[in-house]
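pinned: reference chain
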Amino acid sequence: MQLPEQIPFWAIPAAIAAAVVALCVWVYWLIRQYRYRKAIDAAIGNVAYEMLKNVLIPNGNGGQIHVHYLLLTQRGLLVADLLDRPGAIFGGDQMLEWTAIGKKQRYTFPNPQHALYDRMAAVKLLTGEVPVEGRLLFTLRSDFPKGKPRNVLRIDDLTDDFPPVDKARGNITAAFGDVWANVKRHAESNPIA
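pinned: its structure tokens
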């Protein structure tokens, strides 16, 4: 029977140092992701007096539908879906699938407009005559070399479509106040978002 060799004296400190480096890299990555998400939320929230994020609202059929962002803007309510698809995006209003071509991969994904229209319809059930608009918001990692389909924006173009609001002046959309209160009353936080 052979006895195990003795562990070299430098192995334990080296293992501890490697674990510390791995932990630091992981924490750095988490902080970057957190800041990235906060920057996205701030850019989207810039056009809204109030914002609901990742909520469930009644879909009109006895169920619920998930809404990524629901914003109270100067023009009414805005339903926004956030898509973080890196690469060049090719899609159209009538296409069933859109294509993303990145540096290392090419993939397809279902046309996100259909889900956006479902979310908008559910919000309209709660708002009556108040205008409800919808946008598919892509991050800065996306590019549209052949043009953008209907209701598609990059986050950096959001303020071109919706003016930023001055929250210090108060909510000048008082006409939408009762409707917004009704929407908030029906919205539930999505536990899996």
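why pinned: The first helix runs from residue 11 to 45. The helical segments are 11-45, 113-127, 158-161, 177-186.
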